[in-house]
Amino acid sequence: MLTIHTADVLTPGGGSPSLPGGAVLVEGRQITAVALYDDLVAAHPSARVRRWPGVLTPGLVEPHGPELLERAYHPDPREDLGDEPLTGEALSALTMTDARWGASARRGVQRLLAKGTVAVVGPLRRPTVIDAVHRSGLAIEPGPTESLLLPGADATFAVFDATECVATVIRGRLLHRRR
């Protein structure tokens, strides 16, 4: 299925100039075209359209993957542990099983997706955490990387309205959408 994602401004990355009224055409997992929205709609009138406010740009790469996902516990809302990740003594006071690490990582990944993150820098060592990251669609990178919005590239990007993430798309899948 063809989908056109458009926002007020498209910033393709790599030092390329921003494109007001720009859009990406996504087919499956890949970007097949980057152009003005009006041009893409004229060329592909049957494509589904997703309009977003703000800036469509390559997603964020979180440089602190192990710290956020393997050295912090993201509490379940049903637990009486608060809303913020636990570290240090608070984390040491918990009994952490593999299942609990996996559940924490899934909640941590959801927080990252809601911030426009599309990859984390590793290495990650806990198998349950690695599994949670892979299942979510996030990539694990060996170091900081820069992705570009170009034809042939993975359809991986985020949309920001002011400082808030509106949507996160990874390999063509809409994984976060602001409500």
Q: What does this molecule look like?
A:
There is one protein chain. The protein has about 180 residues and is an alpha/beta fold. The protein has two domains: about 1-60 and about 145-175, Urease, subunit C, domain 1 (Roll); about 60-140, no CATH class. The protein contains five helices and 13 strands. It has helices at about 35-45, 65-70, 90, 100-115, 125-135, and strands at about 1-5, 10, 20, 20-25, 30-35, 50, 55, 60, 115-120, 140, 155-160, 165-170, 175. The protein has a six-stranded mixed sheet with strand order 3-2-7-11-12-13, with no helix packed on it. The model has no long low-confidence stretch (mean pLDDT about 95).
Salient structural properties:
elongated, 6-stranded mixed β-sheet, alpha/beta, 179 residues, 4-stranded mixed β-sheet
Topology:
Elements: E1 2-6, E2 9-10, E3 19-20, E4 22-27, E5 30-36, H1 37-43, E6 48-51, E7 55-57, E8 60-62, H2 65-69, H3 88-92, H4 98-113, E9 117-121, H5 127-136, E10 139-141, E11 157-161, E12 164-170, E13 173-177
Parallel strand pairs: 1-6, 2-7, 8-9, 9-10
Antiparallel strand pairs: 1-4, 2-3, 4-5, 7-11, 11-12, 12-13
Helix pairs in contact: 4-5
What's a quick, concise take on this entry?
The protein has 179 residues and is of the alpha/beta class. The protein has helices at residues 37-43, 65-69, 88-92, 98-113, 127-136; strands spanning 2-6, 9-10, 19-20, 22-27, 30-36, 48-51, 55-57, 60-62, 117-121, 139-141, 157-161, 164-170, 173-177.
